[in-house]
Design goal:
With 174 residues, the chain is an alpha+beta fold. It is 25% helix and 20% strand. The protein has three helices and five strands, in the order H-H-E-E-E-E-E-H. It has a five-stranded antiparallel β-sheet. A hairpin with a 2-residue loop joins strand 2 and strand 3. It comes from Tunturiibacter gelidiferens. Keywords: Membrane, Transmembrane, Transmembrane helix. This is DUF3592 domain-containing protein.
Length: 174
Amino acid sequence: MFSLITTHLPLALRSPRVLIAIGATTAAAIGVTTYALTRRRPTAEELERERRELLARTGRITDGTIMDTMIAEVRKPALDLADDPEPVRQGPMTPEMIVYVYRIAGVTYECAQDVTMLPELVYGVRTDLPIQVRYAPQNPANSIVVAETWSGLRLGTRPPVPYPSEEDELSEPI
């Protein structure tokens, strides 16, 4: 074994223990580098969902007010606006962004939350009522008004569900 170790190395580096330690350190460095370069990085949506979940679990609650709800209605471009084939949707619209304001320790914070990933939770938002805001105590500007497991919004009523008619009830098998 010692005949394979070159003689021009210093005596301290010829020891088998030192050679094993160098090999193990090199293998560990290669492993860490490979992991860092090939691991799956979370997407922006995943990071935002994790932030909402954290604030919904551990955030403090304060009162706030909705300043604005931004509803983006996308239409196909038409040559003549009077000949627009798509009718404007009636009833409450689902917002894509909620701008809200709240006060903590005499400081007023104005924030916005993108709610495009939560359309079923923000349908019919009432802007005339106060809301609850969850915020991080370490960073009060980090806040939410709605998450998958919590909502501080006051919602209007959903559109009524049509009741089955008597004919539908009679046609169904029992």
